[in-house]
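job 3f2a | input accepted
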Amino acid sequence: MISETELKTALTAVGQEHLLRFWPELDAAGRAKLAGEIAALDLNGLAGLIKEYVLQKPKTVIPDDLGPAPFFALHPRSDAESAFYVKARKRGAELLKSGRVCCLTVAGGQGTRLGFDGPKGTYPIGPVSGRTLFEYFAGNILRAGEKYGRPITWYVMTSLLNREATERFFREHDYLGLAPEQVFFFTQGTMPAIGYDGKLLLGSKDGLALSPDGHGGTLLALRKSGALDRMAAEGTDVISYFQVDNPLVAMTDPLFLGLHDLEGAEMSAIMLAKTNPFEKLGNFCVSGGRTHIIEYSDLPEELAVRKNPDGTLAFIAGSPAMHLIRRQFVERLTAGGSLKLPWHRADKKIPCVDASGAPVKPETPNGVKLESFIFDALPMAEKVMILEGDRAEVFGPTKNATGVDSAESCRAMLVERDAKRLEAAGISVPRKADGTVDALIEIAPRIALDADDVKAYAGTHSIRILSGDRIVLE
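job 3f2a | predicted structure (474 res):
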């Protein structure tokens, strides 16, 4: 363990010696814990970040040449593009059959905003069954492995806060049908919280106030955890990245995978057509020949409302945080054990201890958390591919209990998606006068990866759905 003298010298040099305020009161375990957390910090680097992001508010500079990013449309726009989509779907299926694809779920969050005590991935979202978010992903991974003849490894990124609870959930539920070795857990990095005076906050007398370093930290965590080494050993070179709150995500879509590979993209993304100029989605843009995401709050109004000659929004491509990432790209970005992504400032109410050691639970923001975002890797990629997604089919985020982007709206979307797939398979589905489904329908992800699977299932099963029914097909 680093000595008290060494700690004091290093901290004094950057004006953070207050972190040792309670050192004399700590026992050996407490001193070891605090010393370890401090030793893990890049103190000189932090001093620069504090000056740039905390003591002043950074300004977003909009490039003069900023334009909308090109994308492949949801439906082909020409015969040539239609033929290319056919080729891409075939290539995507080949990638899955050859074991070159893995899945990565960012699952570090808790279900607090949902009124749920536990990792968000363990939240029950099934409209009828109450199956959890994790169960949706596991079912699709199992079905994809069965459909394409190769098991898919699932990488689950947790946080320090929920790692233990997440792993316990998987053990207690027999890994949701997957083989234990098929699931690889790893933990995202952390950053210390910083008071508005530039001083690092103590979360307790023997520890820093630490918080996850943002989903941009995924890339470096993949290297540090050994996940990249495992991917290389298994011959995996395409990472399907998605967030834990979206059970509709098409994690193994052959078209998306195939376009990514045929285009030689290092990083690809799904885009959703924005419903209005100011929808709260990041905007896919291009500047200097590189792809960027400009946050909705940073895009100037004159650009947000700009329209094409046909009346559509020029900056129509919004980001729902679904990506394909080439493993070799992550290896390149994290070579040397570090990754330089821009940081983003978030003003937060941060629990901490005051100068006397008393706990503080602020009612207003008292400091800054620094986060990195994975989309900031896009301009570092030599080639980026963007594909339009069908919002109703692939995007049902579960962020709140009710209202927009909620568990309530997500369940309704799951029911509607499954109903449409059944109707496409020739099954009659009761609907109300307003067109909504007059039943609760849930198709288990284990049996249906896509519409073709539902059609095949319907061809071998007798399915009858009446008004008011609550039905689970599995």
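job 3f2a | The chain has a mean pLDDT of 95.
job 3f2a | closed
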